[in-house]
Amino acid sequence: MSAYEAIKEEAFEENRKIPELGLDISTFGNVSAFDPQKGVLAIKPSGVPYSRLTMDQMVVVDLDNKVVEGELRPSSDTRTHTVLYRNFKGIRGIVHTHSTYAVAWAQAMRPIPVLGTTHADHLAQDIPVTKVMSDDMIGGDYEEETGNQILDTFQALSFSEIEMVLVACHGPFTPAERHKDAFPDGELEEPASWSIDFSASPLWRRRCALYGEHYKDWLSSEGKAVPDRIPPEPWQGKQEVRLNMLRCLLAVDEGLGRVLDLLEEQG
To answer: CA geometry: angle at 145 spanning 144 and 150, to 5°?
Structure first.
């Protein structure tokens, strides 16, 4: 019997709940269980579908990210987990998912406010969101930096009271390699709403529209000039993002086309 049987079983059982609860698809997401006495954690192996996951496949890793037990490669998010275990003393487990609605808030870079009693049953505060990573952080040790972003977010918060956090922009649009050069001369027309006239709108609406990349920006914009019309210049920086979205849709269209062709062949 493994010396780490207890945390391997705990991590295995909790990982199986992710697809059962509809919190992720494919092999995304992971749960780890930590043994503070031994200084190790058990985590889901990378790339193994939940339907084929077994307890023996769980990988045991120390806080320096060295594999202690297991034949498979640990989850690519392991370094995020170890950053949190090293710094958040007392936590025994970490769950990471890409649940649909949480991802929507994360990509919008906004905390989830307390809007009802169901949320309040679990947490009496907003679910916080990290700051957006810099290009250097993304290009470096992404998983480690993800952990560091979470630590920064909790500098003024209690991790024992707020047991959840969103990572800003997690799950970006990424075009398939074969479509990366699609629309080489593409230029999207600036939407009318980008420079809409807000002269008849209340001050808070104009402030939100101008400083709303992150809600704290417009909450802290008191005293700043708030024009009646949003300047059009920012649209130029959004062009490539939207072109990448269109490139992604090319791949989706190809996939649907193959499905329709197969259905037609089979009558």
So the answer is: 105
Q: What is the tally of helices (H) and strands (E) in the chain? A: 9, 5
Q: Please name each of the domains of the chain with its CATH number.
A: 1-97 (3.40.225.10), 99-172 (no CATH), 192-265 (no CATH)
Alpha-carbon distance of 172 to 108, in angstroms, equals 11
d(CA 19, CA 143): 23
List all residues 6 or more positions away from 37 whose beta carbon is below 8 Å from its beta carbon.
none
Taking the whole predicted model, whether its pTM rises above 0.70 is answered as no
Six token digits for residue 23: 């919190």
One-letter amino acid at 66 equals K
Name the residue among 80, 62, 77, 74 with its Cα closest to residue 153: 80
**Cα separation, 38 vs 111, whole angstroms:** 35
Per residue in 9-27, pLDDT (tens digit) is: 999 999 988 888 887 766 6
What kind and span of H or E run contains 34?
Answer: strand 30-35
Alpha-helical (H) ranges within 94-238 are: 100-107, 117-122, 135-139, 142-153, 203-211, 215-219
Q: Are 128 and 166 in contact (CB under 8 A)?
A: yes
Q: What is the pLDDT of residues 34-77, one digit of tens each?
A: 999 999 999 999 888 888 899 999 999 999 999 999 999 999 89
- Which residues touch 257 (CB under 8 Å, ≥6 apart)? none
